[in-house]
Design brief:
Layout: H1 7-19, H2 21-55, E1 66-69, E2 72-73, E3 79-81, E4 84-86, H3 88-121, H4 131-145
Antiparallel strand pairs: 1-4, 2-3
Helix pairs in contact: 2-3
Length: about 150
């Protein structure tokens, strides 16, 4: 079997693929999105959840769980079989994080869209007359004076 792809053609195709604008835009979006996710994650963990935890008497939602089967220990106290838990608190925390992230993104996009709408609503300044138009206006004005 003959290999139709040479290293040079692979390199050329890869260069064309990478140089497409949408690939670069997507990469930038993913990187910015990851950084934004870290910021919003910190907002949830460090700003939003402490007051909620305070109102709930210091309860940490992420530690909530339901034990299906408790841990089994031998006579010496060594765990032979770990407990089986449903950690629904982590799910609640992740859901809350998602809702807050979605709300922040919604507000940011809404703000950007309103700025774009304001730019679109403002009428553009009339274009300056070309030299031909200026000459014609001068001729018109001279003829109007006669």
């Amino acid at each position: 079997m003959v290999c139709l792809l040479t290293p040079m053609s692979l390199a050329k195709e890869f260069k064309e693929f990478i140089s497409r604008g949408n690939v670069v835009d997507l990469a930038v979006g993913v990187i910015i999105g990851g950084a934004f996710g870290a910021i919003v994650g910190s907002l949830v963990k460090d700003v939003v959840m402490p007051p909620i935890s305070y109102v709930m008497s210091g309860v940490d939602v992420s530690s909530w769980k339901y034990t299906i089967a408790p841990a089994v220990m031998d006579a010496t106290g060594k765990v032979t079989k770990p407990s089986v838990d449903l950690s629904y608190g982590n799910f609640l925390q992740a859901t809350l994080n998602f809702l807050i992230i979605a709300a922040v993104i919604f507000l940011v996009v809404k703000g950007i869209n309103s700025l774009k709408r304001k730019e679109a609503e403002t009428p553009a300044a009339p274009a300056a007359p070309t030299t031909d138009q200026q000459l014609l206006m001068e001729i018109r004005d001279l003829l109007a004076k006669k």
